[in-house]
Amino acid sequence: MNHEKDIPSTPTGMGRRNFINTAALAGLAGVVGCTEKSGTTTAPAAAPAPAASEHAVPAGVHPKPGELDPYYGIWSSGHTGDMRILGIPSGRELLRIPCFVPDALVGWGITNESKKIMGTKRDGSLRYTVGDTHHTHASYKDGNYDGRYAWINDKINARIARVRLDYFICDKITDLPNVQGFHGIFPDKADPVDPKINYTTRVFCGGEFSIPLPNTGKDADKPEKYHSLFSCVDAESMEVRWQVLIDGNCDLVASSYDGKLAATNQYNTEMGVHYEDMMSAERDACLFFNIARVEQAVKDGKFKTYGDSKVPVVDGTHEGNKDAKTALVAYVSVPKNPHGVNASPDAKYFICAGKLSPTATVIELAKVLDWFDGKLEKLDDVIVAEVEIGLGPLHTAFDGRGNAYTTLFLDSQMVKWNIEAAIKFHAGDKSAKYVVDRLDVHYQPGHVNASQSETRAADGKWLAVGCKFSKDRFLPVGPMHAENEQIIDISGDKMVLIADHPVRSEPHDFIILKRDLLRPKQIYDMNEFPLAIKDPKESGVFRNGKKVTVKITSQAPAFSLREFKLKKGDEVTLILTNHDKVEDLTHGFAIPKYNVQFVVNPQETASVTFIADQPGVFWCYCTHFCHALHLEMRTRMIVEA
Ligand code: K7E
Ligand code: CUA
Ligand code: CA
């Protein structure tokens, strides 16, 4: 396996050969471990010398059969509109939670319950069948995840979905009024006023595309009418609490640990309509919202509304925020077209990744608060470092030991850099070596996150990198490739690439949290469902003119009704309650030719409504393998002509 002469060295000096050796060693580590344990002496002949790795590959990277991953990963899916749950570090995908887009496995978008969450038109059809999820974050308590909720954005239709992390289901979807291109999302971590509230009560949402407000089609050519809104959604009610009208646009969003500040990066301070215009200025901005002041302004009635929306909109424009002592928003100048903004786990800094500038900018939050209090004269002084890290910085993760890990899209690299050293360097100490390590990734990374990264409990064990291109890493499967998510061990000084995982396009953001922070429930509580059929004896066909209700229960391997009769033209609501109590004992319900398919998990109830427009005999069958008699688990729907 001597390919090194075909493989050019990368410009960084980190030879591809080195990389390949490290990866090969990682792949073989498990084998070596096993042979040692079992006492055999057959070491793999091709194993490179252990010296190729700076430190040992930790055990359990790929769990053995039956072993569990120590972390959950919560992933956005991109244009499939769902949320994905992974085990980390194995990268094994465990679940897809449909949110914005119908899902045939569970019947999302088919059942009445899911349609109600997704939203329907007058005729009962879904309002939208497409989505584009980018950013996902979970609720906090005391600066760490509390396992209640995760939220995820839909960029296309400006919707935010909440996922309950007890059942791993989407339970609410909210539209953001007057927003297009809803992109960044971040829950708050505390209340800025009430110190007793040390948990998430708000979710901040950035509107990326500026549109004429109100967007009636009359003002397309009036640039002064174009604005973006920064929105705050109530974590419990999921109602939009308020919005802030800003100049420029919103991209990514971050929140401070004390609850006092939220931020959004903006790449289009130029208010350009074409990309050349959007990159014409040398600097753009990172905006800081003073949350307590925004909420006070809303209380004081200092807001407008737009169009049909009743949501209060306060003024966050340059014009309305000139005086620091009353300003709701601070516009901090940062280099050209920034992308990610991330909060360091020591609660001190926000890091802005430069994207079109090869820099990272470190902003000290205490100084931002000083500026709002009139104690810091020049807003520019909130920047405590602006240092070169490489080409195309996009997102940053943290290890809890003072280091930041930023994706370099153009360099196809991860760069590990030390925040305090960068601050020293920026202050004039040119001997401060802030770049600690660089590692080639494959290829062109976008999002990155480390285990527990954006919490006070950042533990610096694993880094996942979402590489937008996989090229030669996997078997070719036609023009579109899987993306390559890479797992990197960051527990030592050097980053060590451990594994590649193909993922279906295209996840953006993700978080990695310790598995004991979630407390998943194994079966549903039947009382959560108003339509639950509590006793199988309540099953039957109940007619009210043309409206018919069919009540069925399931218990392996049978449905409670062996058949049910309908008349052509009936409007049928079929309710199914699963009476099995064993975890994972899910049943499906499919009606041929009626476009009906859904599942009911243990103790769950779901319903569907349809018109019995095709006469005949239809074998409704269980779609989910549940029992030795799974294939026999059927009921006859008889529609009389
Ligand atoms: Cu989070 Cu991809 Cu929407 Cu950056 S964005 S990569
Ligand atoms: Cu019930 Cu298969
Ligand atoms: Ca710009």
Distance between the termini: 71 Å
Named once each, the bound ligands are: sulfanyl-(tricuprio-$l^{4}-sulfanyl)copper, dinuclear copper ion, calcium ion
Strand content: 35-45%
Total number of beta strands = 40
- What structural category do the secondary elements indicate? mainly beta
Classified in CATH, the superfamily of the domain at 389-521 is YVTN repeat-like/Quinoprotein amine dehydrogenase
- Count of individual helical segments: 6
* Radius of gyration, in angstroms, nearest whole number: 27 Å
- Indicate the multimeric state: single chain
Low-confidence stretches: 1-57
The first-level CATH class name of the domain at 389-521: Mainly Beta
Query: Helix proportion of residues, in percent?
Result: under 10%
CATH topology of the domain at 389-521: Methylamine Dehydrogenase, Chain H
Q: What is the CATH-assigned architecture of the domain at 389-521?
A: 7 Propeller
Largest sheet: 6 strands, mixed
Apparent shape: globular
What integer is the average pLDDT? 91
Can you characterise this structure?
With 641 residues, the chain is mostly beta strands. Among the domains are: 389-521, Methylamine Dehydrogenase, Chain H, CATH 2.130.10.10; 530-640, Immunoglobulin-like (Sandwich). Helix content is 9%, strand content 38%. The protein contains six helices and 40 strands. Strands 8, 9, 10, 11, 12 and 16 form a six-stranded mixed sheet that branches. Strands 31, 32, 33, 35 and 38 form a five-stranded mixed sheet that branches. The radius of gyration is 27 Å and the shape is globular. The N and C termini lie far apart (71 Å). Mean pLDDT is 91; it is low at 1-57. Residues 134-135, 183, 339, 394-395, 446-447, 508-509 line the site of sulfanyl-(tricuprio-$l^{4}-sulfanyl)copper. Calcium ion is lined by residues 267-270, 278-279, 281, 284, 336-337.
